Amino acid sequence: MPNTGKPWYRILYIQVLIGVALGILTGVFFPEIGKSVKPLGDAFVKLVKMMIAPIIFCTVVHGIASMSDMRKLGRVGFKTLLYFEVVSTFALIIGLVVVNILKPGVGFNIDPASLDSSLTRGYAEKANSHSMVDFIMNIIPTTIFSPFFNGDLLQVLFISIMTAFAITCMGERARPILEVIDTGSKVFFNLMNIVVKFAPIGAFGAMGFTIANYGLSALGKLLELMIGFYITSALFVFIVLGFISWMMGFSILRYLSYIKEELLLVLGTSSSETALPGMMEKSIKLGCSKSTVGLVIPSGYSFNLDGTNIYLCMAAIFLAQATNTPLDLRQQITLLLVAMISSKGSSGVTGAGFITLAATLATIPSIPVASLSLLVGIDRFMSECRAITNLIGNGVATVVISRWEGELTKEQLNECLQK
User: Fold this and answer.
1) Which residue of 29, 120, 179, 277 sits 20 to 30 Å from the alpha carbon of 356, by its own alpha carbon?
2) Taking every pair of C-alpha atoms in the chain, what is the biggest distance, in angstroms?
3) What is the Cα gyration radius of the chain?
């Protein structure tokens, strides 16, 4: 354990670990109490999400408007989207390969007619409107202020970029505005530091409710799928992202140690959004520019969901196996392409991956949508792995783009990671 100068019980990630452990014990041995502490987790998530929009707005606007070279914005945007698509495709392929090797659904022999479709009707209804056109149209907010009320990350990013361009056109007259925005950014980050101190309580409430409501018995026969998903996500992080990190001159293990507080926060709350402000702040401390951080991380929450991509492929093929629905190679490739599109716009909020899965299944009629009910009991446990993998993927992407842009050297990066 690094020497931080603090007593061990005052270190945040240890406090979060204790909160998670107490939540699990409470959910197992005192389930009624576990169910009653759900508001603690919900309140913490709401507090964090309250801060996300202004932090993204201030970071993106100040970062882009301070650029002297506007061509850099287009260059960074192109590199970011290219990186996202390549790495996301790798995630989908890995999920497809592993689930075909492990075959966790083979032998279930589930009769779709025996499944309770009412458990998944709500997800299926939401999935019906989950199209690419709807996704693109939703990027444009109803009003300039509405993104700050509904918390849509892409809408906030859209407004931030538009505002940054408007300020850039003002020339020297924009300097006082930029100073105000920079000061506002510091205020919101300080507020976030205060909110994060309540992370252990939030983790306790969220984990206590999860275990009490679904129970360890919810894993049951689906444990093989869960283990396969966790193993696949770990392989993706340590092999694919590990190789990318090595190519960029840093260790994936050191990076994971650097963001351990954020990882534990996601583990406790099952939402990667709770760690977004902390990831942005730590990326800037590493040496990544504000403009790069402001573009890559928020957009990554819609375009670079590696954990969600792995889940979509594995879960869809698992349901086909469990219901004895034959899928040839062409259908599986079609499923991969559909998942590549439907995953866009799925945020780090708990349950979004389940809705996206319903949207993906809707395009493969041979897989009964009612089979989603098989996953209802374990989706919360799967959501944690999805969110953690998404978080790591977006963090590594930010460092990679910054390295490509020459914003930080290998020596600077490793020096910061060793602190």
Assistant:
1) 277
2) 69
3) 21
* CA of residue 290 relative to chain centroid, distance: 20
Q: How distant, in Å, are the alpha carbons of 99, 315, 338 from that of 224? A: 10, 12, 25
Residues 288, 294, 295, 296: is their CA dihedral positive or negative? Answer: positive
Query: What pLDDT digit, counting tens, does each position of 153-201 carry?
Result: 778 888 888 888 888 888 788 888 888 888 888 888 888 888 888 888 8
CA dihedral 195, 198, 204, 206 (to 10 degrees): -20
Q: What is the DSSP letter of 112?
A: G
Q: Which residues contact 88 (CB under 8 A, 6 or more apart)?
A: 303, 304, 305, 306, 309, 340, 343
Q: What is the pLDDT of residues 142-157, one digit of tens each?
A: 888 888 887 777 788 8
Q: How many domains does the chain have?
A: 1
Are residues 52 and 185 in contact, defined by beta-carbon separation less than 8 angstroms?
A: no
Residue 1 domain flag: no
| CATH number of the domain that residue 397 is part of | 1.10.3860.10
